[in-house]
């Protein structure tokens, strides 16, 4: 079937047990913009928060579902074990290292992995994050940091970088990535902290915003997710017509999937790769300005039109969250 390549990473969705503290860290420490405060459309009793560049351009969104009673994460295999966030250059990483020291953010030293400067760190719930330098990047372009961020614009986060998958049987995941999803293997490297081999795959224009890094881990049990874990990674498709083509491809390859799912801000399709990680394909549009104007993104509870009639009922179940 004549379909376009996936364009890169669309968003990553993770879990938090405390929306207020999550908002404080991602907006005031990391300087990302909350572009949408809404609810989990599969469980409207909990928040879904979208942090991104100035307007939530595709490839810049790190999102969180609030699960107030979420327990701790027990790290393991068959999971999404790190999410990267792109910054402009190596100099920006020095700024972030100093900022993390000043603000007491748990972090490692700057390292070079896959020929890029990186800085690993954790949020207060143990979310595993990596700042990655875009210096020399020739692939997918980054977004535009919000000019009202507490972080200087030239040092700001410009989007999502490589997503790390840790799996027990890598050949099964790699087969889906390459033979079905159209990724190509381009490199490998040894991870500094434990010398484990990492295989690098890219799609579309390639580069920092279009990579998956696959790590084999056979000695640990499956990760038990909780606060600070990742729920799924989404990949970019152009539009709904392309999404329909991808659904047909998945079905031709006997991969069970959700079928077309309307999310209002984008359309989606979900499936699990053979090691159990949840993948989503999501359209680049229509975006986040259909129900809020640019200047006021994320300030009030936004609900898709099909939930608007239940607003009072939904709001009654949510703990108020001040975001403006």
TrEMBL record:
<dbReference type="InterPro" id="IPR052537">
    <property type="entry name" value="Extradiol_RC_dioxygenase"/>
</dbReference>
<feature type="domain" description="VOC">
    <location>
        <begin position="8"/>
        <end position="134"/>
    </location>
</feature>
<dbReference type="InterPro" id="IPR004360">
    <property type="entry name" value="Glyas_Fos-R_dOase_dom"/>
</dbReference>
<dbReference type="InterPro" id="IPR037523">
    <property type="entry name" value="VOC_core"/>
</dbReference>
<protein>
    <submittedName>
        <fullName>Glyoxalase family protein</fullName>
    </submittedName>
</protein>
<dbReference type="Pfam" id="PF00903">
    <property type="entry name" value="Glyoxalase"/>
</dbReference>
<feature type="domain" description="VOC">
    <location>
        <begin position="159"/>
        <end position="284"/>
    </location>
</feature>
<dbReference type="InterPro" id="IPR029068">
    <property type="entry name" value="Glyas_Bleomycin-R_OHBP_Dase"/>
</dbReference>
């Amino acid at each position: 079937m004549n379909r376009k390549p996936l364009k890169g990473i669309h968003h990553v969705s993770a879990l938090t047990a405390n929306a207020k503290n999550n908002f404080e860290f991602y907006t005031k420490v990391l300087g990302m913009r909350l572009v949408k405060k809404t609810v989990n459309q599969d469980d409207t009793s909990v928040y879904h928060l979208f942090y991104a560049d100035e307007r939530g351009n595709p490839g810049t969104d790190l999102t969180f579902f609030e699960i107030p009673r979420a327990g701790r994460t027990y790290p393991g295999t068959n999971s999404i074990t790190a999410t990267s966030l792109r910054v402009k250059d190596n100099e920006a990483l020095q700024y972030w290292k100093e900022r993390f020291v000043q603000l007491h953010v748990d972090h490692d030293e700057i390292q070079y992995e896959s020929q890029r400067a990186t800085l690993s760190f954790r949020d207060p719930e143990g979310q595993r994050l990596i700042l990655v330098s875009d210096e020399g990047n020739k692939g997918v372009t980054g977004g535009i940091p919000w000019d009202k961020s507490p972080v200087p614009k030239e040092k700001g986060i410009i989007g999502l970088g490589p997503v790390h998958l840790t799996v027990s049987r890598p050949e099964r995941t790699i087969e889906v990535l390459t033979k079905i999803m159209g990724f190509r293997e381009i490199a490998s490297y040894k991870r500094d902290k434990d010398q484990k081999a990492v295989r690098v795959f890219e799609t579309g224009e390639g580069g920092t915003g279009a990579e998956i890094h696959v790590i084999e881990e056979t000695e640990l049990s499956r990760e038990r997710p909780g606060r600070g874990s990742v729920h799924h990674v989404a990949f970019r498709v152009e539009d709904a017509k392309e999404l329909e083509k991808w659904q047909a491809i998945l079905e031709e390859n006997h991969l069970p999937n959700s079928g077309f799912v309307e999310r209002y801000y984008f359309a989606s399709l979900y499936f699990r790769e053979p090691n159990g990680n949840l993948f989503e394909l999501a359209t680049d549009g229509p975006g986040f300005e259909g129900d809020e104007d640019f200047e006021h993104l994320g300030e009030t509870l936004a609900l898709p039109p099909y939930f608007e009639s239940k607003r009072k009922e939904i709001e009654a179940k949510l703990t108020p969250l001040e975001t403006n």
